[in-house]
């Protein structure tokens, strides 16, 4: 399956070899980073529409990007937020500790392929630094502990041969079953026709396949031991077994775009990004006076409170009721919160969405996820380890740790040798996360310290702890009910409906005006890049809804939609 693609979407020639790989495919290979960087901007609306209010429901990253770009076009975003600005960009401080010491309870690591996200990180003037993933170049050391046996490593070459064999098996599996090299090269070169050709065949063949089934079908993973090690340890971000029931297409999107490698964190915490977008006055904006920010457009500089009801009104309008009892009607609204909120926390009229889209929302599958952090006096893990006779062993006292014990992943995060530091004692997903759910933060910490004490019997972690633990279980958060979407086999059609909802000209008149955006609307859930991309889709949709258009030199995602639309699988 190929198509003719405009050069603005698929630059050719020598330039493609110099551009970064980007998380823009393979489902919808639109170059969002180029769209954002173009001097013509994202588009404009008629002057008669300037100052018109648009509801933006959800103050996470997707909502803030949506509101920021709509403000620049001359519209007046009205942001509703039930909890706090930032969503799952949630950076917490430790009570009683230096406020510069933080814990990332949600998103904490971002790949270089998040090129649209990078646009806003740079816009906000934020710095990034390497994140200490297992065996990453910037990680001092890693310990892999399986079945009671620990291995210390600085690179994968330090691990026993079986781990290198499993890494090779994963590479072989991807090559044999998913044309990895060809697709990775096509995405890197932004060769849209080739991406679409490869992906169309894979979607048709693999939509019904689980990640685990994909491994089992590979000769490289014939060994159960290999599959077990890969599930518990993995490569890049750690173990993959909590993803085993999910669609293999979800995993391929990650590995094709190298989203599982070379991660960076935001210095000072990821929540700074939405907060800075909230307060930032754009250099170029229409209608509003210089110095206008989203905060300035809201009374008291704060968003409207939680939305409690959404309904249709005459003339393709959306009526929004909030928890303060305020009722407002808008000509357009963008919903960026978790989709399940439409089913549980918000009283929604059936007429809001077409029935097929309601089905897609109901079928959304969320991953559970939990973390627990403790503050410590200093990065003691970098102290040189000694043996029983007090002789140096050449190892660090403690390492980034992957294990089959309850903790699963332990990350060591420091701000310098003589400054307080933080340990993410445990980062778990799905079933592993649910095991922690009934326990308090203190109870969780006790179990984790016991597990880590078995891996590091000579290390007294507790004596370094200088404050109470911080924890989160995203499945227990009332405005989230899960960490992020992950499609199950057979869910591709549902995801396509949600992602393409911003294209509304084919919808009946009574179904237009409400736009879906956010992490779980994207093809790359679990990554902030997807929140940004769907925000930009919604911005384009709102712009067209108000009679606006893009500059011909910088077509938007809807302008080129027919040329790069996601694969459409038959319904019968």
At a glance:
With 572 residues, the chain is α+β, with helices and mostly antiparallel strands. The protein is built from 17 helices and 23 strands.
Strand order of the largest sheet: 7-6-18-19-20-15-21
Low-confidence stretches: 1-18
Overall 3D shape? globular
- Give the % helix: 25-40%
Strand % is 15-25%
Major sheet details: 7 strands, mixed
Measured between the Cα atoms of the first and last residue, the distance is 20 Å
Structural class: alpha+beta
Number of helices: 17
Rg over CA atoms? 24 Å
Say how many strands there are. Answer: 23
Counting copies of identical and different chains, the oligomeric state is single chain
Average pLDDT score: 93
Structure description:
The protein has 572 residues and is α+β, with helices and mostly antiparallel strands. Helices cover 29% and strands 17% of the residues. The protein is built from 17 helices and 23 strands. The protein has helices at 14-18, 32-37, 61-72, 115-123, 161-178, 180-189, 192-206, 211-216, 224-232, 248-256, 272-279, 355-362, 430-434, 441-455, 492-499, 528-545, 561-564; strands at 53-57, 76-80, 91-93, 102-104, 128-130, 142-146, 149-153, 264-266, 307-313, 317-322, 327-330, 333-335, 347-348, 366-367, 369-376, 384-386, 392-396, 400-403, 409-413, 421-429, 470-473, 484-485, 514-516. A 7-stranded mixed sheet has the order 7-6-18-19-20-15-21. Strand 3 (91-93) and strand 4 form a beta hairpin. The longest helix is centred in the first third of the chain and has 18 residues, at 161-178. The two termini are 20 Å apart. The model is unreliable at 1-18 (pLDDT under 50).
């Amino acid at each position: 399956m190929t198509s003719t693609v405009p050069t603005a979407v698929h630059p050719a020639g020598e330039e493609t070899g110099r551009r970064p790989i980007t998380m823009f495919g393979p489902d919808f290979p639109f170059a969002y980073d180029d769209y954002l960087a173009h001097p013509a901007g994202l588009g404009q609306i008629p002057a008669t529409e300037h100052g018109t209010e648009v509801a933006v429901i959800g103050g996470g990253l997707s909502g803030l990007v949506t509101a920021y770009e709509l403000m620049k076009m001359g519209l007046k975003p009205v942001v509703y937020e039930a909890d706090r600005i930032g969503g799952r960009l949630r950076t917490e401080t430790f009570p009683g500790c230096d406020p510069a010491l933080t814990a990332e309870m949600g998103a904490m690591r971002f790949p270089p392929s998040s090129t649209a996200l990078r646009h806003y990180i740079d816009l906000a003037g934020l710095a990034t630094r390497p994140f200490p993933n297992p065996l990453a170049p910037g990680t001092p050391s890693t310990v892999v502990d399986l079945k009671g046996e620990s291995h210390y490593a600085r690179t994968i070459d330090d691990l026993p041969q079986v781990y290198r064999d499993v890494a090779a098996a994963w590479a072989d599996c991807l090559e044999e079953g998913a044309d990895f090299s060809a697709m990775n090269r096509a995405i890197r070169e932004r060769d849209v026709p080739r991406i679409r050709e490869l992906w169309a065949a894979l979607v048709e063949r693999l939509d019904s396949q689980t990640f685990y089934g994909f491994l089992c079908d590979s000769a490289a993973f014939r060994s159960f031991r290999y599959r077990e090690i890969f599930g518990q340890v993995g490569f890049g971000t750690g173990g993959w077994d909590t993803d085993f029931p999910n669609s293999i297409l979800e995993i391929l999107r990650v590995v094709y775009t190298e989203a599982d490698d070379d991660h960076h964190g935001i210095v000072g915490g990821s929540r700074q990004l939405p907060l800075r977008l909230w307060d930032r006055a754009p250099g170029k904006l229409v209608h509003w006076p210089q110095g206008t920010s989203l905060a300035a457009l809201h009374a008291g500089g704060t968003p409207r409170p939680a939305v409690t009801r959404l309904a249709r009104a005459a003339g393709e309008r959306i009526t929004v009721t909030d928890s303060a009892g305020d009722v407002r009607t808008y000509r357009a609204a963008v919903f960026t919160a978790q989709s399940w909120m439409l089913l549980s926390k918000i009283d929604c009229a059936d007429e809001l969405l077409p029935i097929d889209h309601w089905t897609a929302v109901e079928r959304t599958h969320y991953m559970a996820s939990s973390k627990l952090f403790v503050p410590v006096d200093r990065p003691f893990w970098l102290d040189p380890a000694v043996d029983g006779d007090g002789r140096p062993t050449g190892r660090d006292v403690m390492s980034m740790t992957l294990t089959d014990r309850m903790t699963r992943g332990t990350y060591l995060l420091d701000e310098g040798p003589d400054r307080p530091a933080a340990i993410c004692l445990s980062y778990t997903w799905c079933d592993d996360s649910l095991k922690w759910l009934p326990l308090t933060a203190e109870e969780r910490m006790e179990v984790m310290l016991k597990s880590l004490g078995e891996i590091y019997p000579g290390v007294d972690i507790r004596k370094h702890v200088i404050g109470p633990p911080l924890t989160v279980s995203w499945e227990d958060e009332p405005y989230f009910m899960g960490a992020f979407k992950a499609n199950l086999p057979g869910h591709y059609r549902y995801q396509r409906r949600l992602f393409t909802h911003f294209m509304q000209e084919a919808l009946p008149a009574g179904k237009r005006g409400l736009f879906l955006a956010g992490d779980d609307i994207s093809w790359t859930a679990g990554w902030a890049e997807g929140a940004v991309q769907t925000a930009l889709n919604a911005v384009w949709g709102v712009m067209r809804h108000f009679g606006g258009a893009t500059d011909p030199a910088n077509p938007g995602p809807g302008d080129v939609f027919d040329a790069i639309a996601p694969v459409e699988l038959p319904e019968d």
